[in-house]
Design goal:
The structure holds two protein chains of two kinds. By secondary structure, chain A is an alpha/beta fold. Chain A has ten helices and ten strands. In chain A, β9 and β10 form a beta hairpin. Chain B is mainly α. Chain B is built from 14 helices and two strands; from the N terminus they run ααααααββαααααααα. In chain B, α1 packs antiparallel against α2. The chains are: A alpha/beta, B mainly alpha. Chains A and B meet through α2 and α3 of A and α8, α9 and α14 of B.
Amino acid sequence: MLALENIHAGYGPIDVLKGITLRVNEGEIVTVLGANGAGKSTTLMTIAGVNPCRQGMITFAGEPIANLPVHEIVRLGISQVPEGRRIFPRLTIRENLELGAFQRNDDIAGDLERALDLFPILRERTGQLGGTLSGGEQQMLAIARALMARPKLLLLDEPSLGLAPLMVVKIFEIIRAINQQGTTILLVEQNANMALHIAQRGYVLETGRIVLEDSAANLINNEQVRKSYLGG
Amino acid sequence: MKLRFHWAFLLVAALVPVVGLFVPAARSLGELLRPIFIMAILALGLNILTGFTGILNLGVAAFMALGAYAYAILTCDIYPFQFGFWPAVMLTVLVGLLAGLMLGLPTIRLRGDYLAIVTLGFGEIVQDSLKNMDVITKGTQGINPLPGPTFAGYMFRSETYAPWYYLFLGFLALVVLLNRNLQRSRVGRAWIAIREDELAASCMGVNPMKMKLLAFSLGAAQCSLAGALWASFLGSSGEPGNYDFQVSIIALCIVIVGGMGNIAGVLLGALVVVGCNSLVLETFTNFLKAHELISSTNVYTAPGNWKYMLFGLALILMMRFKPEGLLPSRQVKAELHPHEPPPS
């Protein structure tokens, strides 16, 4: 569904990604693991079109999408939940969700219902301003908002960041549920343990290069991964 | 149902000339309201940019000038076009739309302060060009005389009062209605999203460049409309100096004092800012003169001449005590008072 071929991208004179090749098949949850600064977020931002791709090919459903404007990529069916959530803090929950469906005008009310079914806690607060939610609720709102675009592929950037352990478990349950409803997911995480438990496959990123690629089950048992990312 | 301030404003304003038939004071109030209507249309144009989309524009007077001159060239009998009022106004709005697009296209990628400087420069360039292209614009004389508007066979004359009043009020109501619908539309949502967080907005599928250009053109078109109406009222394009930086700043004052991003706020702002200028200060000056409390030879003693200083003081006081304006939009209020509970 999504394929990256030898991607180079970065900021200023520095290439953060030095030839990333990865693929996501339809229906999968694929996770990208790595330490701070390895290039995980840059990979997602490059796919989403926020960051220019300097070299290499990105194809989505067979179409090249590298360096298309962000809004075009959303239209093709890739939605991003950006790092740090970036909800609209001074718009209401409902307005946030409606903006998620900006590219569409069919059955938005129905999708709003489905999103609120997935996150009942948001339903009680549709008129409340986004900024008044807790961190976990904001993460839920960001995911719900991305789903409003009816993406084929959902890009998630560190959904567990800064959340209480119980909330992390909850968010990962929801991610698995979204996947089971048919949305393909590319998940960037520092919480390797949680990510590998819901993903089918994973990639390990180190200083801009893929150093490992395997099924999630194998990665959990991999000596190197255990040492570096799973705490022994 | 709660009666919104802007509809109440328009309703009360519509009654002023009727009351004026019986109460002479209402008539002089009505005469003061006409320029307020025009400034409100100008400020609502700026509000699309600054209030909704978050783009600071310091040159709206230039679009007003373009509107006034375009209208003058289209109607004045020294030019070959000699359109009537209605087609000329429509074409002027189109000219404003294109002018906004042409200024926006090369500059819209600039951010914040840099774009503000461009609009500031544009304001000066337009004014100087109008002064110097005297073959077309008649330099500092302005283009005149212009024929009055006609409506269903009725000819507007400069000495009449109520027809002009209702003409401007009608246009203002139209602009308010248009902006109201824009604000609630998909486009309006996109503008507010861009103002809040441009990157997040583009992740929602909003094309920020397209939406900002749209804001630029629609804002400019409204400012041109204000210019055309003003020119038709004056019977002249006015001279280029009528559309100087101070006009742009007054429009910005109206938006800030009234409440950024809120149509009702902008109407209130126009009432307060222009009203203070032409009603309070002038009445006070006349009162002092009548009682010989100030000398007529020393200009410094007339309060009317202190207006820009008083405006400045008012802006500083607003920033200190009510930075969101008198009637702010919900988002601006939440931005400046993050700890107060929002209205449910």
